[in-house]
Structure prediction request, 772 residues.
Amino acid sequence: MQCLHKTCLYAVVMLLIQGFGFAQNNPCTLSISGYVLDEHDSSPLAFAEVSIRGLFAGTITDESGYYEIKELCPGKYTLVVNHIGCEPVTKVLELTGNVVGFNFYPEHHQELLEEAVIVKEKSRQEAAAKVQLSKVELESSKGKSIAYAIEQIGGVNTLNTGSGISKPVIHGLYGNRITTLNNGVQQEDQQWGLEHSLNIDAFTAENISVVKGVSAVQYGTGAIGGAVILNPAALPFQEEFKGTFYGIGETNGRGGSSSLQVQQGLGEYFAYRAQMSAKKLGDRSAPDYVLSNTATSELNGSFELGYKRERLNLSAYYSHFSSELGILRASHIGNVTDLQLALNSDRPTVIEPFTYSIGNPRQEISHDLAKLEAKWLWKEKTLLKATYAFQLNRRQEFDVRRGALADVAANNLSLKTNTANLLLERNHTKKLLGKFGLDLLAQENSNSAGTGVRPILPNYNKYQAGVFVIEKWQSPKWILEAGLRYDYQDVLAQKRDINQEVIRSQFNFSNWAASVGATKKFNSHWEFSTLLSYAYRPPHVNELLSEGLHHGAAVIEEGDINLVPEKSLNWSNTLSINYAKKWQAELTAYANTFDGYIYLRPQPELRLTNRGAFPVQQYTQTDALLAGVDLRTEIFLSPQFTYKIVGSWIYGWDRLEGDYLVLMPPAEATHSLRWERKAILKLSNPFVEFGQHLVAEQQQYPEIENVPAPPSSYQTLFASIGASTTLFKRALDISLSAENILNNTYRSYLNRQRYFADELGFNFLIKIKYQF
Prediction:
């Protein structure tokens, strides 16, 4: 492994040297420039994205609608223009010399029917702190989890269980407090579990954005901490057949992932997209040993069919996600004495040779999503959108058991969810936009019989209804926004006690949520946003009634039936700075007070059961304060060099106990230097990036008996190099990257298995993307 590490590191260094050598000779000096103007009145469209399909080349129009793309080679290019509220416009150009006056005229009155996405738009469209991954960040995260992808945004961390399971943490909040919208549908997949990953194929997302802070008015009670929004690209109406293939290999785990997507317009009114992906990784490795039973296997697919007329859009979408995940074998201990030894050991108690096999403990998960959607543009100023979706989530958790029970799931859950959503958007005037929404949910959770153990979660039926209204007034200098929401929830749960008698519990919750915000644009460079939100979240069934071993986390969890809804008052302020081609920055400061904050508190007890010895954690409630700062900045040192810093700090305080909150992310920062050119020789968009990730030791934590203190601070180095070329006259992107270059040994406070093993060691990846 050390030899492989040195060889890969040498290869990366040589490629870096060659990349800088290439930079000395650049024959590609051609440019394309022009304006993006409204089709109806030729008014300039600022902040429109102008990009070249198949390349990373692109730019954003200025306030006059002007754009210019430089350093291009002679050849045939397809330019695409996106602007919020407009249909994408595509033009083909044979470039033999400098081209000026190459103008675009988008249809700007389709803003309600088509929801275009601007990748690097810095002008805020709402008062909430919403950040979207750039194309570069999104491409670099392909093959990784959704949580890994959005960790590149300041204020977002990941909560891990071992090396293969992760979920997002936004401003210190996670689980039931984060809503994920998958292609416009609220994802329902047992997200209450801290060791349950998002059951979404990241390859299906063309754009990913995060709404930080309380946004429950639009996204419901589950978004008290924020929302993760994933959307595919618009269907390619009236376009020819095209496809994209990804192939990714990595050394740590000796495997990789792949994805194939094809799409096509069918005549004038129809279009489709089909996609499949797979992942296979063996046991991952820490710097000094194999992390036994951490292999992963995935197989996913999706299909979408759309119909489009002038005022009507119809679409049908289906996706299937399935995965099998191994859980670190050393995290399941047979007795209390061995558990105490494991908690104080520098190495796992079980280390076996590398394998692709997945043994117990393990998880098998599948998620199916079917969606029907209709959009109707009525009287030019009003959009009606109706969506129905059905989701089926199956989760099986296999424990370390002997005999015939070894192949029987200890937890076998099935979650069926029906959702219906109605949204009405209306432009009252050119400056005033209103939204009205109705959300309905019916959900059934059931445990399969024959597991041999009492299920941790009871059977339950949940019915939920929510209605909201949002009004936004916008001028060239101001955005004012206010919203109000009402939710009602009814839950009927039943489980058996130790005497096998049925216990039924019913819960009813209802409350209001509200928000008010403002954005002031001082000039073309500076703007300031402030948002004050009141939100409400009823306790989830697991927080009320869970009882038993949560095997993936290797922890016994106990609920509290007396929990009451938590209420949050959040004040968030964001300062945005944008000097084109010089520097960009976004600084967010927030304070979030909770009445009745619900959390899982570790107990001093180590409990011995017939399934082994495990720590105990109990859901409890307190009043809390979460406050922090996020920073995200890019400094353009020259046309080729960009320096980026992303960092966050959070403070979590238990106001009743006068102590720190558990599992709050420590202060961290990532900084990187990126070199990129438009073209070199026959290569397009060559780049080299080198960076460092720094994580401080968490010193603000409650001291609890038998719970080890947080691990020490650590740092890791990463690097990547890549470029685009052509193969059979089609775009081919190739990149090499390395993670934890120095093969450092460390443990993360946000990893639930930090007590048993170190984090991953050196990893070398090769990635190809071919567009045809």
Summary: Residues 2-22 form the longest helix (21 residues). The longest strand covers residues 583-609. Helices lie at 2-22, 135-140, 146-150, 216-219, 336-343, 541-545.
